[in-house]
Amino acid sequence: MRDPRLVIARRELRTLRSEKTIVLALLIQLFIAAFSSFLVVGLVSLSDPGSADGFETTIGVTGDARDDLLRVVDEQPSMTGVAYDSESAARTAFETGSVDAVLLADRRAGRVFVTATAPDNNVQTTVIVVQLRDTLSAFERSERADRSASLSSTPLDLPPRTRSPPYYGFTYTVLLPLLCFLPVFISGSMTVDSLTEEFDRGTLELLRAAPISIVDIVDGKVWAAGVLAPAQTALWIGLLGANGTTVRHPVAILVVVAALALLVVTLGATIALLAPDRRAAQFLYSVGVLAAFGGATLLPSSPVTTVARLAVDSVGPAYPFVVAGYLVVGCGSYLLLRQAVPRADVSGR
Amino acid sequence: MSDRSPATWLRSAVRRAGEAARSVGRIARWETRRSVGVLDRRTAILGVLALLVAGAVGGAALVGGGALDRDIYRVGVAPDSPYHDVVVEDPALTARAPDPNQLGRGTEVVIRDGRFYVADSAKARAALSTLRDAVGRQNLDRMGAEENTSAAFPVVVTLRYTDRGGETPTDGGGSNGDGDAVGGTSADGDDTDTAPSDGTTAEPSGGLDTDGATRDGPVGVPSLGAAGGLLGGGDSSGSPADISPPFPFASLVLAFLFFVPMNFVIQPYGSTILNERINHRGELLLVTPVSPSAIVAGKTLPYLGLLVSVTALITLAIGGGVTSVAAVAPVATLFLAATFVGAMFARSFKELTFVTVFVSVFLTSYAFVPAIFTNVTPIALISPLTLVVRDLQGVGVTAAEYCFSTGPFYVGSTVLFALGIGVYREEDMFTQRPVPLKFLDALNSRITRPRSVALLSAFSIPFVFIAELLAIAVLFVLPGTVSVPLLLVVVATVEEVAKSVHVYAAVRGPFTDRRTDEFALRLGALSGLGFFLGEKFTAVVQFVGLPDLELGRAAFVSVGDGPTLAIGVLLLLAPLVLHATTASVAALGARRGRYAYLAALVPAIGIHAAYNLVVVTAIA
Fold first, then answer.
1. CB contact under 8 A, B50 and A21
2. Is the reported ipTM for this assembly greater than 0.90?
3. A343, A217 in Cβ contact below 8 A?
4. Which residues partner with B155 through β-bridges?
5. Which residues of chain B does A137 touch, with a Cβ-Cβ cutoff of 8 Å?
6. Which of B51, B147, B355 sits opposite A287 (nearest CB)?
7. CB atoms within 10 A of CB B548
8. How many C-beta atoms surround the C-beta of residue B311 within 10 A?
9. B397-433, pLDDT tens digit by residue?
10. I want to staple B298 with a disulfide (CB 3.0 to 4.6 A). Which of A299, B24, B46, B350 is the partner?
11. Which one-letter DSSP state was computed for residue B205?
12. CB B56 within 8 A of CB B66
């Protein structure tokens, strides 16, 4: 006879397929990923002038510090300065649209007071404001250099500016961990549902009448949910690779995800065995998982940073030990659960 | 009816309403008692503990800043280098030995003798960019500790936003407002304690005249800092590094604050509805003389009340008013309505979990819309959160804006509850059927005669509206050559499915004995007419309520203002003809079965997409 635990696991996966819920789960993940990328890509491309190619900003400059400011403006890439003799002339140019923003710079009391006017309710506003900030920061540095005699320390020289890909950090530190851990959370929630439903429908009594132990039942459910998470992660890593985002150490990442899935699924099963019904169980599970993962990000090496560092290959030669540590935690919690299950009171419901 | 006087009729109507209200109240009380009873002491203690831990973790993460990108870039820098502290302090950077041979293998950037060596990879460029930002921040910190403030921060910037283009010529331009602002800053500038480093909170400057009536007055969000920049408003001043572009930070925080409780409440709500369907438990209630709608109302009321009171508490905490609660309440209602329908359709708790997650993800993304269209205020109004932001900023919200923003939510919730109550009956509640079939059943319960088809089409408008907006949002990332045609096809698909799916349900259900081509054409034409009327009604509401919504009118193609009356009528009627034609094509297929229906959708979508393309190119 086949292993009854495998039979239960297979039945779990079969219901998922027949209910087509796994499709819904993948859709949810894809949607979250697409939407968060959209938000970041949209906002970054607006707030990073380097990535908005060919967008030339013309600035009207006036006031008595005009010439010094104009020198800095002309050094900036994709920015042109136009000098105006009076504020009203600059303002007219702004109203007619011949300049995109106006800087009024006056020297008073040893400082330069700049009033910057940017257009309102305009898609370009964000780009213009960021460019103004960069320009005025450069102006501040040059003014500060003139006053270095009255400063006790000198500022460090800035590293050179590069054309860096703006979404690099986001892809590896937010998007990839999101796609790795969403399946883990969903798997845990699935286990909670699956077990509480057996209680609720009274089918657990029937299962227990069969020649299998309660440990076997929990085993089957944990296995089914635990396999699902790494499988989905593998799919996402493959898709990211096809899209040109290389993920390094894919096997190590999959092992970490599998270990965490085991841990979270174990947590879900424990809660389902302890809590009186699904409402309480799902609440405890979601709060517990949120707290655990939120707390983990405070540690120097959280699951999120581990995955990110593995993916960008910022790990030392000792990384197999870290991965093995996750595996030990995952398997350890699962073994503890197996020890505890026969002692849990599951008959009284 | 005729022999009864109006007074008797009125009296009996009042009595019936009173009875219904009493039974709703009874069920609501019962639901509350039972839900509270589920929580035994152990669970309650565990829950409180979990909440405490979660709160502590959340607080610690806010204070300590749990960095997701900790140590992902490695920089080779000697311990005695001035850059060493910068690298150690930035969470994303980690210090390594400055060995040039390791460049590209163990380190991305190496700093030696004041020179920067960078490996040739995307990662190394990202690392250098992070390093540059970190050095800039460190410099600012160092300057903040200087005694001589005017030498450390020699530049003080006041940033302000001004409308241009003379849309309101009586506004007087910006010249009069300017004097105030300069006066305000120079008054501050005399004493040295205008420490620009704390300038992240925008001090409202005096130049209110420049900005018109839309956002004078202080920003009423104490802890949100950048909220002033939310809708392009709010002036700021300080060191150049402190000025920031209008970032929709407030709407993100608000979405988080208001939506997290909803996500928790819909879980037990879905459970209690599904519980009724397990082991025929709901049968007892169904056989009582209480109507299904009263049962559903009674079971929903406690959860709605809970959500509204939580919303009110949050609003009170962040200093909002009645408008904020009124804006968020319809969102809570739609959350519950969608969960209710999900729980009526789901076959198991697992399926219900996925449905509720889908509901939360979908609605939360929709509320993020203001973050996307932050620079286009009328579009941002699509999300009720914009109303909350405006309320917090002390800007009034007009009735038209309120209706525009929350209308889809009210109509959507009503339709969903109506659909769900339609299947709140024995033959649907206790049977295990696939979700699509249940959905068709729910539609059928609302179709009694051919005219109902038109009504259902009209009521699908809010859902079409939401789906198309999300499509625009998601497809926006792709390059224009791909996204525009794709968007046209997606829009056509959404509208065609919305117009035909209930026709398909109808010919399988109530009209199963009337499957002729002629009847199918009639249903198709009615469906097209209903959709057209719904669309035009929405357009009229938008036009009346929000006359400056040009972008919205461009996005949801609607035509008018023809050069002559004849062309105007033609342009007005063209969408009607289109909707009726395509719906009829789909209806002809629907009459012949599932596969014929799916096949017929293809030409219907094709015609619709082609029409959209013609309209878009003609306008552009």
1. no
2. no
3. no
4. A112
5. 136, 240-241
6. B51
7. 9
8. 24
9. 888 788 888 888 898 899 999 989 988 888 788 877 7
10. B24
11. P
12. no
